[in-house]
Write a structure and sequence with these properties.
Layout: E1 3-9, H1 13-27, E2 32-37, H2 44-51, E3 56-59, H3 65-74, E4 81-85, E5 89-91, H4 97-105, E6 109-118, E7 133-135, E8 141-143, E9 146-147, E10 150-151, E11 162-164, E12 171-175, H5 176-181, H6 194-204, E13 208-219, H7 230-247, H8 250-273, H9 278-294, H10 319-325
Parallel strand pairs: 1-2, 1-4, 2-3, 6-13
Antiparallel strand pairs: 4-12, 5-13, 6-12, 7-8, 9-10, 11-13
Length: 335
């Protein structure tokens, strides 16, 4: 049984300088460590060769984005388990062993994440995955420990292993065989929602996704596209709609898409009128336009007609209703 930790890098010398020694310290005896460089234009590669010659290096010929960048890199990695690890993650002693052991003992678990805490506020969960993710009935992601922008402090309230709907791409351990059985990350997404889509497809194969909080890491977050960047808004909306189109059974797709059309344009108007954010308003409108232009490119990925395949990946409730109307701000308060 072999494990490879693969860090996808793009112009991230400062992040590697800060976090790579920590990853080596707590991981080198349990897994090989590889940096896959997405055609950086800074001196990342030269710095890595000079300072960490013992770290594996894969150099890609262009910037493929997060999703296809990993596909291109992992095609060159021979291991039983892949660890997709962001360059801005600080790991802890013994973080990897419990997850790999858990997956070895549970062959139907295809992917797993640790507890994800914040580098800047270590007592709090980190937005990008917290203690495992879910998707509400209209496609909105949320986590144990994070609902929309409300991030909980960690008081060990979610320290039990739990089956979840998705594991964060900031730190995901995935069985290599299952990764390729599901088709890998969808390179067309470029970035954002790609790990949720992958986890949904893994579940459509009858496999499970878990969070194992006995393992914990700390994530900085927002290194490439910080929150509030219109491109981040665009990719999140476009890719989320595409993920729903790819994975929802036909009998549920029409209703969900009608509701989402209303909610998305409502969000766009609120962004413009209340927040006076013209950039995000344009990003949401462009995301919906581009989704409608390319959605039929994904027809071949959809569940078979009249199939319920993939239906149970969504919760039965709306997180918008629970959060904004019922005023439930913690995961533990949800139905």
């Amino acid at each position: 049984m072999t494990t490879a930790v693969v860090i996808l890098n793009w112009n991230g010398r400062k992040m590697m300088e800060r976090y790579l020694p920590n990853v080596k310290q707590h991981t080198a005896t349990e897994a090989s460590i590889i940096v896959a460089d997405n055609a950086s234009t800074d001196d990342s590669v030269e710095w890595l060769k000079a300072n960490h010659p013992d770290v594996g290096l894969i150099t890609l010929d262009r910037n493929y984005g997060f999703a296809e960048g990993y596909n291109q890199a992992l095609a060159h990695v021979d291991a039983d388990y892949y660890v997709l690890l962001n360059s801005d993650v600080e790991v802890t002693a013994g973080w990897l062993g419990p997850i790999v052991s858990f997956m070895e003992q549970n062959g139907d678990v295809a992917a797993c994440q640790p507890k994800l805490l914040s580098v800047s506020e270590p007592e709090k969960f980190e937005y990008a995955g917290a203690c495992g993710g879910f998707i509400d009935r209209y496609g909105y992601p949320f986590c144990r420990g994070r609902l929309f922008d409300t991030v909980e402090s960690d008081h060990s309230q979610y320290d039990t292993p739990a089956q979840v709907s998705w594991a964060t791409g900031a730190c995901m351990v995935v069985r290599a065989r299952h990764y390729w059985d599901a088709g890998g990350l969808d390179g067309r997404f470029f970035a954002h929602n790609e790990e949720i889509d992958l986890c949904w497809r893994l579940q459509r194969l009858g496999l499970k996704i878990y969070c194992l909080p006995q393992s914990k890491v700390y994530h900085l977050g927002g290194g490439t596209l910080p929150k509030g960047n219109p491109m981040k808004t665009y990719l999140n909306f476009r890719n989320n709609l595409t993920m729903l189109y790819k994975n929802l059974p036909s009998q549920r797709l029409r209703r969900v898409m009608l509701v989402r059309c209303f909610l998305d344009y409502l969000a766009a108007v609120q962004t413009l009128v209340v927040n006076r954010n013209v950039g995000d308003f344009k990003a949401i409108c462009r995301a919906r336009r581009d989704f409608n232009r390319w959605k039929h490119d994904f027809d071949g990925d959809r569940p078979a007609p009249n199939s319920e395949d993939g239906a149970d990946a969504l919760t039965a409730y709306s997180i918008l209703w629970q959060y904004h109307v019922r005023r439930r701000r913690r995961y533990s308060e949800l139905p």
